User: What shape does this take?
Amino acid sequence: MTLSAKVAVCRGKDAPFTIEDATLDALRPDELRVRIVACGVCHTDLAVRDGQLPVPLPIVLGHEGAGIVEDVGSAVTVAKPGDRVLMSFNSCGDCPSCAVEAPTYCYNFFPHNWSGTRADGSPTLFRDGTPLHANFFGQSSFATHAIAHQRNVVVVPESAAAIPLERLAPLGCGLMTGAGAVLRSMKVRAGMPIAVFGTGTVGIAAIAERLHLTQPAVSAAIAALEERHATRLFDRVGRGLELNDAGRAFLPEARAVLAQAADALGVLDDLAGLKRGDLRIAASQTVATYWLPRRMAAFAAAHPGVTLHLEVGNTAQAVAALLAGAADLGFVEGGVDEDLLAVDRIGGDRLALYAAPEHPLAGRPLAREDIVAACWVLREQGSGTRNHLEHSLHARFGLTLADLDVRLELPSNGAVLEALGAGGLVTAVSDLAAGPRVAAGLVRELDCALVERDFLLLRHRARRVSRAAQAFLDTARD
Ligand SMILES: [Zn+2]
Ligand SMILES: [Zn+2]
Assistant: This one.
């Protein structure tokens, strides 16, 4: 069944959009027909109008559509007639990007969004029986009705039933673009500086995500500030905001005050001469278990007024804690590649092979065949110790873990060392972890040199090092 609709036709930058009658094609099994209630106007629509993107003209644009489902194809499961839905960009669902739920990077993004037709080349819209370019971002929502697809439609949840569709429509592109740019692409965390130029849908979303506020909450806070000081800081341009002269004059002052407030609290602690304060440390397992405790104990004895907090996780978690301002210092054994952090070697350990003292491999240099023939107990997948063993075996013997006869995997250094007691098995752990058992004669180091591993100190480049943190580093380096 076909259906007539009114659509806004774009012919390029020298002609206005014109409202014309058109006919929607019959639905394919995976398509939905949506009666459009609202649609955002995005800069991308205007870039297409101005010929900056390779989209055929004339075309029906609009890609932040919101509306009510009227009809669905036989294979559609995401929504049913009567549902309130939002539309976003379309994707193929079959390519490597779609397989890892990254449809933004769909290998077939162009045919599904910008070709002016369905991906198979068939038209979705006709005018006087002749095809008209449409299916823009899988929708073309500057229209009374649009054909959308199973993969680019989201039902508005019950929890948002009271929110009008015209407020929700920009979620389809602008809001998720602003939030995604800040939270995912730029990985901005609390405490990091960010400049947002332009406060339309994308910019406001970026600021709101940054502040963990909703868009209405940001608007309300701005209005309250302006009212209290009887000074307008922004001009309202359409539905967006632009800093005016007063706002531009105020901005550097506001930023400076916020930065100073954060520093002032730290300075107060410093002025107290380490008689009080907090020092928050994030560390990965091996460092936290074998390297830090003695140093923390020494610091605690010297500075009883400073409270030490230790958060133990993996390397990625320690990096995240520093970026978020949740830790002052980080200590990890993994490689760290993060521009915002200063990374220095502060210590290290040595991975070595261990077995029960009576093990047949004990007491002689190990060859490649010994490594392959031995029965192993290893740390679990993802552990730094296991990764380090893999690198070492590859560098030294050209072996991978798949070449080893692994009989058992256990999730802690203590557990794998304990498993050696039953005889037979060989493992690889940090010399710091095995030290006490070696000293007690329970296990024995095998004769096989492996690569040393660095312990890294992490600090945030943009934050001052507090007196407590500096004092801890002085203790730790001794
Ligand atoms: Zn857009
Ligand atoms: Zn795809």
